[in-house]
Amino acid sequence: MCKKKSKLHKILGGRVIMVTSINTRNIIALLAILLSISDIASAQYLKYSDDGAEPKAVKNGVVNTSSPFVRIFFVGEEDNFFPPYYIVHKNDTLFISQEMITQDSWVVALPEEGVTYFTVKDARGSYRTVKIMHSHSVWPIAIGGAALLFVIISLYTIFKLRRHLRQRHADDMLLKASQRHTKKYDCVTVLFADIQGFTKIAEHMKPDQLVDELDRYFIFFDELVDKFGVEKIKTIGDAYMCAGGVPEDDSANPIEVALVGLGMIDYVKERRAQDSGFWNIRVGLNTGPVISGNLGNKKKVFDIWGDSVNTASRMESSSEPGEVNVSDNTYLKIRDYFDCEHRGRMPVKYKGEIDMYFVKRLKPQYAEPGSIYKPNEAMLLKIQILKTSDFEEDMRRDVIRKYCPALESKFNMLLQRVDTLCHENHLSDLDYVVTRLSAIMSFIQIEFTKEYKTDIQYINERRHRLKLFSEQNEAMAKTVSNIVQGVEPQGIIEEIICDARNEYLSRRDIGAILIQWLEIESERNKHLSRKDWLLQQKALLGTTRYYTESARRLAEVSLTSQSEVIDVLLAG
User: Are 134 and 102 in contact (CB under 8 A)?
Assistant: First the structure.
């Protein structure tokens, strides 16, 4: 018998385990099977015979037979038999000294099909494994083993690939989140703030004390820009730079940046009232076009460039301690809301002479009592009105022009009439904001029903930037719901929107309008005929009435006479 056995084979005791699932334990078992088969083939310690034929050598480490009985012959290098043999393992069953083989041959009864494993131990302690496949070919098990290995390798490859793709996706998302596309803005207000005499201060202060004091300034400035929706750009030494109107367009940005500038000055004045040695600052503002983007490959930082930025820097250097200095460009946009002091035309490096103004405070009717920069409700409503135009443009650009550009003229007609009726009915700023936004939202929901459901998250995000009061949100939700459902209008806001939606029915050019809108509706609804469309409009004409006195007064033609125009179109 062969006395040489592999160390791993001895540890496993020659046992063979069926592999039924892919995991670490069964992979090890598979290796054990392959080891056992290899050992059988190389050692040549058994032969087999079926149907009484001459003994045949084991091929490929497997006894392959189609007979229900097979006779196993134990052979070796030194002798043919070394009794007794103990069956210690058969398939999934252990036999410890319970079944003995005492002859040099062993007749095994086999099941109808499948593979049978035997592990036997002789008197010298050597293990022998017998693997019998009741089949006509060894190819099924070979193919099965190859398939199993292929599955294992494939699963491992897929796992590695998916992990790589997840990491790649995360890196791409992080890169996209950290970058902002280059863009040109037409109206951005840039602010520079600088500490007076900082160089001399730094020479006489300990580094840690200097940094702590500077940090107090910048932490408060950061809170201010967040409060008023302004974008912090960067700090350079003791200089602080921020801008309004980037990275999102904001029509109210000159007001918001001016509020930030006054807030900085007010903070410093309070600190200096407690400690006269506290640092003082200068602030400068300018409004104009800029370009934004990122530069470099590492540590990409959002930044802005342009002549407007340079001018803002000049406004700061031309300012005085404790003052907010603005250019004429900024003054023209904020003068209705702030008390300003004209400084005259001042020389500016590379710019010649520029009109400059000190911004002293919010006008008293727009400020909280006792504050020069905290806006009251009246001021917040003025800011909302400006921001409403931004929301309108967002809907025009990202919904109407995206899905049906032909409806933009209808959208514009609606809002023009809403503005007119709001003015004629002397609506307050609060009601005006609700009316205009409700008109926009109801138009989007009615004309773009499916698209609205798709873009509702985007629309809500844009509306959130308006910072509406809770009562405005509630009124707006109710108004839009009633308009979309066609409920009889309740209150002046709903009456104005209903009258504005039906304003085209009283226009002299109703025929041209209906033909234009028919083309739009036909593109969106292929089954809509000219006759059906005109009959719908005639039925609407018969049920429409104007709710506000101003709408009835502004009507160009009476509704009853417009039926004749539709009849002519039907006849044509």
Answer: no
